[in-house]
Design a protein that fits this description.
binds uracil, uracil phosphoribosyltransferase activity, nucleotide-binding, 6 helices, Rossmann fold, alpha/beta, 14 strands
């Protein structure tokens, strides 16, 4: 699959298996999602720009590279995206965070926007859009479309799980946006849930079932 990065590191896959189980508690689900997101950040940000600075080691002066965390924006699709942002901030604490509120109309499954707040100067920043589930792709397509209005330097999409329909939807609307995921599951069911999946990501993160 073009531009789909499957993060199949054993640490990620092990934690994903524990998280999928229906008897995993809210507390454990949240912790596992946080840990997986931290590990995924390593791969997602592998090409993040760096710049040299001059430092003093105990022995001499040298030039060494640092990243500018402030150039990275984690754009969270509410509400479940929060679960991924928290983990990613562990490794890039200086990143900016944007929010886009979209809910799925239960009948049409179409994304309806109710909130949009991004940092200024998006044109100078690299945006990582996050949502645990890339299912129908409606929310992801709408979120990326809105963010593109501000012409950021780059856009990536990160999810925990997706399925062939989600990938197809996002890539046909935005072929320039790479997808990073920990799994590509079998399919969508008739209610738009990924199967075998994890159920409703928001409910499992926030304990609202
Ligand atoms: N959103 C979820 O929370 N779960 C799915 O399986 C699909 C969309």
């Amino acid at each position: 699959m073009d531009d789909v990065v499957l993060i199949d590191h054993p640490l990620v896959q092990h934690k994903l298996t524990l998280l999928r189980r229906k008897d995993t508690s809210t507390n454990d689900f949240r912790r596992l999602l946080n840990e997986i997101s931290t590990l995924m950040a390593y791969e997602v940000l592998h090409d993040i720009p760096m710049h040299p600075i001059t430092i003093e080691t105990p022995l001499e002066t040298m030039t060494a590279n640092v990243i500018d965390g402030k150039k990275v924006v984690f754009a969270s699709i509410l509400r479940a995206g929060t679960g991924i942002v928290d983990g990613m901030l562990t490794v890039v604490p200086g990143a900016r965070v944007g929010h886009i509120g979209l809910y799925r109309d239960p009948k049409t499954l179409i994304a309806v926007e109710y909130y949009f707040k991004m940092p200024g100067d998006l044109a100078e920043r690299d945006v990582v859009v996050v949502d645990p589930m890339l299912a129908t792709g409606h929310s992801a397509v709408a979120a990326v479309e809105r963010i593109k209005e501000y012409s950021p330097r780059s856009i990536k999409f990160v999810c925990l799980l997706t399925c062939p329909q989600g990938i197809e939807a996002l890539h046909s609307a935005h072929p320039d946006v790479p997808i990073f995921t920990a799994a590509v599951d079998r399919e969508l069911d008739e209610n738009g849930y990924i199967v075998p999946g994890i159920g409703d990501a928001g409910d499992r993160i926030f304990g609202t079932t």
